[in-house]
Design a protein that fits this description.
The chain is α+β, with helices and mostly antiparallel strands. 30% of the residues lie in helices and 28% in strands. It contains 16 helices and 23 strands. The chain is elongated and about 120 Å long. The two termini are 70 Å apart.
């Protein structure tokens, strides 16, 4: 077995997003932790609160909250599950990972450690990490010094011998006794007679020592990921501008991506809530064109949304939640990347950004309807998701839907001239070209000398194509469609109403134009 110990020495401070302002964590009387800006102003752990405020009146001083720290530790554990299912909490400030089975997947211990450090840094957490053959040893080494490794028995004995005895969790109440005995490191402790040591300090300390050196079994409880993602983050200071929330929200999105990876899932939408002192919370709902767990994609989408938001009052806490997830197993890299897939991904990103900036309901597409009547053959609906197809297919779906409708009967063109051969100009469904540009309402045409008239006489080039349908909804149509050429050489799509609809006139009508 191989364990990685992760110790977060500044966890209470790192639960807040990084800030350049002086920030400190304190209990009822004393300063416990201070960030770099506060240390530069002379504030240090152990100082009285009043002294720290006198040195830096602008100091952001927050009370130590064990519940917030515990929630942060659990959030980190959820993110770490993407690397191994063997995650074990070690409150109040450490986590243990059993990674022997994960090394090959992530390229070895060093490569895995690099990914762990990068991900934790992206979430704003400082860490001391170490690896060892036993869980207790990995924890002791991580708390002692960053970067230690003890993967072999001889190496384990050598590394542990130098660890201060104060690093043992069970040594706290007995430190004075051990100091009087001249015990400062684990090497000193091992040199004392075991029976006499047990009488003086009890067996609990010796049991922890045995677990560290692998002399006894060490069962541990595994952490299980929560079913849903719902994380709150208190800001060090209230934020007045919506776009400034992105920095703090980024760490939550990274954590969300890790939680999704651990569940082999992706997200279809997520909700960011900003909490105010008196005003109702600001709730931002963001939808993705297709499911993803890419944190950079989620950040980009949120940035677009925040640019359009105006806060009613400053935000002191943000909350990120999502329960609309879908299964999305890890995909292997393509040997030969497909240009169509890349283009589709670009289209998806564009749709998402437009929806975030303009509103989800404002980005629409045309969906085909099983109806022969051209004005009823498609319906405008909000774009919920793009199909997993090439970008060209997805792009043409919206434009071609305008003219793509079934036909009851067709007729060959009246002349040998090719009409609408360019796909960008027309859509051929059943042999006769159809225009992509339909008028919102058909325009009644004059008839002169038994010929339709539109800024001059029209020449019929193809048709007729007869459509008779709609009897079931009281909108019966009986039409003969033609392709006509105007005096300006424009190709038009016209029809002649065969019989009078109730309350309507007969004659010629213009319904569409070819590009």
């Amino acid at each position: 077995m191989l364990w990685i110990g992760l110790h977060f020495p500044r966890l209470a401070l790192d639960t807040f997003p990084a800030t350049t302002a002086p920030l400190a964590i304190a209990d009822a009387r004393l300063i416990l932790l201070a960030n770099t800006s506060a240390l530069e102003r002379g504030i240090s752990p152990g100082q009285k609160r009043s002294t720290a405020l006198a040195l830096a009146p602008e100091l952001l001083l927050h009370d130590h909250d064990p519940h917030r720290q515990a929630a942060a530790l659990q959030g980190l554990a959820s993110w770490l599950l993407q690397f191994t299912p063997g995650v074990s909490l070690e409150p109040p400030d450490a986590i243990l990972l059993e990674v022997a089975a994960s090394l090959r997947l992530f390229g070895g211990r060093d490569a895995l450690m690099t990914q762990l450090r990068a991900g934790l840094a992206a979430q704003g957490f400082g860490v001391q990490a170490a690896s060892a053959m036993t869980a207790t040893a990995a924890l002791l080494l991580a708390r002692h010094r960053d970067g230690l490794a003890a993967d072999q028995p001889a190496q384990l004995n050598l590394r542990l011998a130098r660890v201060p005895v104060a690093a043992l969790a069970s040594a706290g109440p007995r430190l004075e006794t051990l100091e009087r005995l001249g015990v400062r490191t684990l090497r000193d402790l091992l040199q004392l007679p075991r029976a006499g040591l047990a009488r003086r300090v009890g067996t609990e300390l010796l049991a922890e020592l045995d677990r560290a050196f692998g002399r006894v079994a060490e069962p541990r409880a595994w952490f299980g990921a929560p079913a849903g993602f719902d994380v709150r983050l208190q800001l060090p200071a209230s934020v007045e501008q919506a776009h400034a929330l992105l920095f703090a929200a980024r760490r939550l999105l990274v954590q969300l991506a890790g939680w999704l990876a651990a569940r082999h899932a992706a997200v279809r939408s997520f909700v960011l809530t900003g909490e105010h002192d008196t005003a109702a919370p600001t709730v931002l709902v963001l939808h993705l064109a297709d499911a993803s767990r890419d944190p950079e994609r989620l950040v980009l989408l949120l940035r677009e949304k925040l640019e359009t938001v105006r806060l009613p009052e400053p935000v002191h806490t943000i909350r990120l939640a999502s329960d609309t997830i879908v299964e999305a197993p890890m995909s292997s890299d393509e040997m030969f990347p497909c240009a169509a897939n890349s283009a589709h991904e670009g289209l998806v990103r564009l749709v998402e950004r437009l929806q975030a900036r303009l509103g989800h309901a404002q980005i629409q597409r045309l969906n085909l309807v099983e109806d022969h009547r051209p004005e009823s053959a498609c319906r405008i609906q909000a774009l919920e998701a793009l199909p997993a197809a090439s970008a060209a297919t997805a792009a043409t779906a919206a434009t071609s839907a305008t003219a793509a409708m079934p036909a009851a009967a067709t007729a060959a063109p009246a002349s040998g001239r090719t009409i609408g051969a360019n796909p960008a100009e027309s859509a051929t469904i059943t042999g006769l070209p159809r225009p992509l540009w339909l008028l919102q309402r058909p325009i009644a045409l004059e008839e002169r000398n038994s010929r339709p008239w539109f800024n001059g006489p029209l020449k019929l080039l193809a048709g007729p194509e007869r459509i008779e349908t709609g009897w079931w909804d009281a909108h019966l149509v009986q039409r003969d469609y033609f392709i006509a050429e105007s005096a300006e050489d424009t190709l038009l799509w016209i029809y002649r109403r065969r019989t009078a609809d109730p309350g309507a006139r007969t004659g010629w009508f213009l319904q569409g134009m070819f590009g």
